[in-house]
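Two proteins were folded this term; both appear here.
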Amino acid sequence: MESRWNDQEAEDSLARYAAYGPDLALRIYSARLIGADPALVLHGGGNVSVKTTGRDLFGAPQDRIHVKGSGWDLAGIEPAGLPALDLAGLQRLRGLTELDDEEMVNQLRRHLLDARSPNPSVETLLHAFLPHRFVDHSHADAILALSDQERGEEFVAEAFGDRVAALPFVMPGFPLAQEVARLHEERPEVEGIVLHRHGLFTFGETARESYERHIALVDAAERFLAEAGPPRVAVPADWGAARHEAARRRAAEVAPRLRRALAAHLPRPPILRWLDDEELSGLVAAPGARELFLTPPLTPDHTLRTKNLPCWAEADAIDAAVAAYAREYHAYFERGCARCGPRRELDPAPRVVLVPEAGVFAAGPTAAAAAAAADLAAHTLRTKAAASALGPFRGLDELELFGMEYWSLEQAKLGRGTPPPLAGRVAVVTGGGGAIGEGIGAVLAGAGAVVALLDLDAGRAEAAAARIRAEHGPHAAFGLAADVTDESSLDAALAEVLRRSGGLDVLVPNAGAARVAELVEEDPAAFRRLVEVNLTGVFLTLRAGGRILREQGLGGSVVLVSSKNVPAPGAAFGAYSASKAGAHQLARIAALELAADGVRVNAVCPDAVFRHGDNPSGLWAEVGPDRARSKGLAPEELEEHYRRRNLLRTTVSAEDVGRAVLWLAAEAPCTTGCAIPVDGGIPQAFPR
């Protein structure tokens, strides 16, 4: 590992944060350097601090400490993420012989200089008790590879000599702060402190000194590991692209069954993330993988994201493996309560599932949580494999893990609150790159769903997904190429949805095409093409999606985007109206056939939607001029014509369609076989 310190970037940070003073400006810069390296920290891990001076409300000098606040990630930290506390007040706490967690948090809140600040790190006192101006803490993979060993103490001593002091694992909080301060007073010359099975602290009088000490020690650990020889668990020699591709196919088959098995132990179905990584799928298939990987996490902080152990599941025994994991988790919980006192049991479902035939799955209540578990799982597997060159892995015992998993201060990091209506749900929208498709996707993503936009034009689908992600978060949506008239194309796209998200809950057949022509003038080939897209495409979508919903066994919702033209067709629009009517009838039949599987099938019937934001409707761009001529209008008069012809004199938007889809998908548990107009009120189209 090499230092990423760059003098020009440091100067840029000094200029950007000049109002906060040079110490905090450089603290932000070096914190981001640490946070940007996944080999050091992941998903909010690690913390940093800087001691500064200022003046209190009365103008008197005041020593302060800025520490990373709860909810902030080092990679993008800003001044608000480094709340200031009264340093002298915190240091007085060093004189106490004990301080329980709740009172410690109370003291940290009492010593904040701004009551609006986020809660400072639970390790704030550790930072405060050390004398140095800058302190850095990470969960570096290489440090954990050395310390999480049966001979970890020996390896740390061999790798670093007198450069570091080391501590066995101590529960974070006041006891750890006291131990680190005591150890540093005994060894004031050291560059850092290794906390076995926890990570590394370094310190210095400048941001650069503390950061570069950190990098140098991690580099020394990496070099020591590299010289240890070949790992005992490694990717099989015959593993390669062909076997990984077989694992990819197997993963799509396994995902809905795994999701169903996990859902039996959770308040709602999880989002899954399959790790599409040739090395990782090879590691899980390696000899000795089960014994190495069914071990505690690298650091106890990971238990919040990954539980204390992964689940090992053969592809043909998913249900039994997950059920056995849940039973053992409950037994572990009972053992922990017997020794630590009563707790409220968390769900017993695994967060990481290792399937030797298919690779690695991560699970979470949201896509972001699944992605975090996936990242931690990837680093854990790679680090354990590399560290197997040193000897047997040894993590924390289950009592220590229980203490961390059920520690109230760590649980607070996960947050609480009422989930949105589609939290944990996966939605697929065909024709997703178009105006209506994007509008529906945006509404469903806003309600908590992970949205897959499928479109013949992959670039347009991904552009729409990118706009949804910009509004609703980095995991809200993704775009995929799919031709709804081609079975293999549609199956391949849905298989990728299963690998990326684990299953399917809301299916929205929306892809469509239109054409303006009177029946006597219609081109038979063009008519057949519209039937192929609007009717056969819906049939293939219902067929492929229905199979997934049935196999998954979790119910679900299908909402067809039908049309106002089904109950109220228009002249010179025969191919569109007839093919849409056929699709509408297929949805009614699907409602009959899928009801036994708990799948509701409904339809929305919008009138003309011309755009969603800056995304114009491809359908109306193609047929709009001809449609205007058929009505005796200029093209620019068409939108106003559609607005004025409905009873509410309103423009129907893609969001309006999306809200109707959302209601049917999330708020209408007793409704199936229904069609909802979304047209502003067209009397000829009133349901009857």
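Next, the second protein.
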Amino acid sequence: MDAELKDLPHDRESLAAMIRSLLLEGEQQKQRAEQQTRRAEELYLQNLRLQLELERYKKWYYGPRADRLATSGEVAQALLEFAEQLEAKPIHPEDVPAKAEPEYEMRRVKRRPGRRHLANFENLPVTTQVYELNAEERLCPCCGVERKEIGADESWQIEYLPGRFERIQHLRKKYACPGCEKAGENPQMEVAAKPEAAIDKGMAGPGLLAYIVTSKFSDYLPLYRLEDIFQRQGFEISRATQSIWCGDVADLVEPLYALMAERVRQSHVVATDDTILPMLSVGKTQAARMWVYVGDKAHPYNVFAFTLNRGRDGPKHFLRDYGKVLLADAYGGYNGVVGGNQITRAGCWSHARRRFIDAEKVAPEIAREAVDFIGALFRVERQAKDFSIEERLALRQAQSSPVLAKLREKLLAWKEQLLTKHPMAEAVNYALSQWAELNVFCSDGAVPIDNNVSEREMKRVVLNRKNSLFVGNPRGGRTAAILASLTSTCRRHEVDPQLYLTQLLMNLPQAKVSELSAWLPDQWKIRHAARMARFNTVSPAP
């Protein structure tokens, strides 16, 4: 120690310089340690993100679509394996009470007698085929006398007859006055009128147009598949021609589409969502968007709108003059839509729950606890499913509000203990940033707790996109929006879209503007049900 002290400089300046050097070295070591810590945190977070991304891809390809925690599935699987092992385990006779023996003897697989129930089997048209013995087969092999008919065995078979094409020839008789014609004057010619066609000077009848629109926008068959189906049935219609016909139908029904959009804007709650709908462009497809706006029960229409991008101008234009409740996800573009007007923005608890489920692998206990809280909110909603708006609001304020208060305390605590860029911290921050929107349902009994109604409609757009890949141009996107609005609203009211569209295309060209509302799908369903009831009352029973 004395030898080390002897090596120290004796002047004040040299000692100060040595101390500064040591302090600087210590500071550098501290900075290096902090950098190493930050680097370790970054690597840790990167590893977590890669794990989540892998799990997300595995779920997309192999997992269930429902938003459920993996731990709950593991518990269910463990219970199933335990039950299978218990079932396979042999039963010792001494372990079974004597009184239980008859129960084990009666234990069998129950099978329903007869044919399984077939929906609307009795309503199908009947074609009867009779099978008889010929004269030679009727002779008795014993005495040679002709045998008499004593009854018949009856059995049923269901057959499918493919659709067919027909040519319908329209002959418009011409009439003229022979007297005027003989006198060399105007013969007063007149031609008998025929119903106005859905497509001016077009060969497609309303039934064919309705079938194409229904197949494309309700059954999600791309037009090239319809082209093959038609060819098998004996008449080829190119996909280009079908596409033009769809555009012509959209032009015809556009006033009805505009009326549906106007009715949706009168709703107390409008649910909206969007998804990508690729559009052909130079070099590559353009990421255009398809939006849906779902009206409430008083205005039961699903209206789609096509835009070239995801900017706020699309929803802002559609929701012009609207000033009530907009139910949507956390997309920031809606801030510009609701800003500066009377629109109240409501959030979706399904989206919030999905964030926690996606981050479950990196923080399973937090995910489980958060999902339990959100599950309690949904249990209240199931209890209030058939309640009036006032009763539902009272139940929410009594049971859901306390759950929300506890959940907020948990979210704030989790935020303090998690790293800023931790995947679970992103789920927590999502819920906290949307907290005001997520609480709207507790102040308005008419607001749903989630936005699943519009997400379901978007899934159908995705299915159509998967089959058809893209739209060709903005006109094609507009056509898809108009026709999808009609078929989606038909599905909402459990209306056969082909029957509805056939009657619509037969009558709409002659309809007046004042009669337009009668052809809305819900109003048509009421009139059609009344007509069928009168028909069944007048028609004699077979």
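The longest strand covers residues 269-279. Residues 60 and 447 are 30 Å apart (CA to CA). These notes refer to the second protein only.
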